[in-house]
Description:
This protein has 234 residues and is an alpha/beta fold. Helices cover 35% and strands 31% of the residues.
Amino acid sequence: MMSTSVIGLIGAMDEEIKLLLSQMESREEVSRAGINYISGTLQGRQVVVCKSGVGKVNAAVTTQILIDHFGVSHVLFTGVAGALDPRLNIGDIVISSSCMQHDMDVTPLGFDRGIIPYQDVSDFPADERLISLAENACKELARDEYLIGKVLSGDQFIASRDTVQTLYKQLNGACAEMEGAAVAQVCYMNGTPYVVIRSMSDKADGSAHVNFAEFTVKASERSHSIVSHMLNHL
């Protein structure tokens, strides 16, 4: 079963998929909903690589097409994020234990922040096997600076120290970005295993204008090496 599985690899930006595409073989490209999907082989595995674009709607559409049209068996989302957990530094890795939308806020109706009203799950767990593969990759690549934690997503770029404190303390978030929870929810709804791997490009504290552009490429390289290692061991 696993030998014929197809792995969906998603990045939000060009930097996040450039390295993957450069190493793919037997490439074939198709477009769906304005999104380019590149099928081929990587590390001997059948993969579909795509750039979701920024934000939860783009990420959700991208993921559903991967599942419906390409029949992917697993989804790996890779890229950069802003650190929330004070233990994290720029370049460190967060492997998602779960993903949740921090901008889902229906507190005036009595729901806790992040809770999607009238459904059973709002904090979407990542696949344990994929988490383990990602952790093993970090260990074998001698990248001790990683943690497994909750990825928070919202359609906003976090650049406030106060917001960082709130998201960390109120929602127990390890890092903040703009796509992961949408990928996670779509995968959960379809019964598709997923994991999000984010490399910290900034501290989400207002210093991003200094850090983000400089560290995005380096952070993407770290994420890419982990994904490549995971593909070798799936």
